[in-house]
């Protein structure tokens, strides 16, 4: 499965959402930490309009309040965001995914019964201003083996190293820069989906 995250994209929110719907992307997350609350709500509503009643689940990053207001399908929380128990008071039974950056964090996150966990960065990345230390392929393999929910491998993944990630057992991957920093987003998504199909992911 390909998990798409929108952050500082070349294309518009509507264009990316339409591409994801056309290509049957399962998860589309909005992660725009530089936007004001008003801008974030407008962006989220724009994406929600496109993804509503489609197979593409719209995920809001960090902000339980905005996820609830726009009627997102899911919420995603990082290690420094509000605790999942508090978030559930805001979003109710909305599924929640959790970011993890070590085996210990993954084990702790799984105790909260998330819909999925993100795990990374697998390789060095510059997507975040303060990236976490790389976890590597061996740790990814261990987390995939112990997790009863999907594990989304993320961080520094590109076409030249994606097969290493898949060989480590990952069935779900996220390539942020490769998809967001190009006007050829749809073409690149198609190529990654083909790679995933060939690997059985």
Automatic annotation (TrEMBL):
Molecular functions per Gene Ontology: magnesium ion binding; thiamine-phosphate diphosphorylase activity
Domain of life (superkingdom): Bacteria
Cofactor remark from the record: Binds 1 Mg(2+) ion per subunit.
Pathway it works in: Cofactor biosynthesis; thiamine diphosphate biosynthesis; thiamine phosphate from 4-amino-2-methyl-5-diphosphomethylpyrimidine and 4-methyl-5-(2-phosphoethyl)-thiazole: step 1/1
GO cellular component, as recorded: cytoplasm
Cofactor: Mg(2+)
CDD domains found in the cross-reference section: TMP_TenI
GO biological process terms, semicolon-separated: thiamine biosynthetic process; thiamine diphosphate biosynthetic process
Family: Belongs to the thiamine-phosphate synthase family.
Residues that coordinate or bind 4-amino-2-methyl-5-(diphosphooxymethyl)pyrimidine: 29-33, 61, 99, 128
Gene3D superfamilies: Aldolase class I (3.20.20.70)
Catalytic activity annotation: 2-[(2R,5Z)-2-carboxy-4-methylthiazol-5(2H)-ylidene]ethyl phosphate + 4-amino-2-methyl-5-(diphosphooxymethyl)pyrimidine + 2 H(+) = thiamine phosphate + CO2 + diphosphate; 2-(2-carboxy-4-methylthiazol-5-yl)ethyl phosphate + 4-amino-2-methyl-5-(diphosphooxymethyl)pyrimidine + 2 H(+) = thiamine phosphate + CO2 + diphosphate; 4-methyl-5-(2-phosphooxyethyl)-thiazole + 4-amino-2-methyl-5-(diphosphooxymethyl)pyrimidine + H(+) = thiamine phosphate + diphosphate
UniProt key word rRNA-binding: no
Alphabetized Pfam families for the sequence: TMP-TENI
EC annotation from Swiss-Prot or TrEMBL: 2.5.1.3
SUPFAM superfamilies, per the entry: Thiamin phosphate synthase
Presence of the UniProt keyword Metal-binding in the record: yes
Role noted for this protein: Condenses 4-methyl-5-(beta-hydroxyethyl)thiazole monophosphate (THZ-P) and 2-methyl-4-amino-5-hydroxymethyl pyrimidine pyrophosphate (HMP-PP) to form thiamine monophosphate (TMP).
Protein name in the entry: Thiamine-phosphate synthase
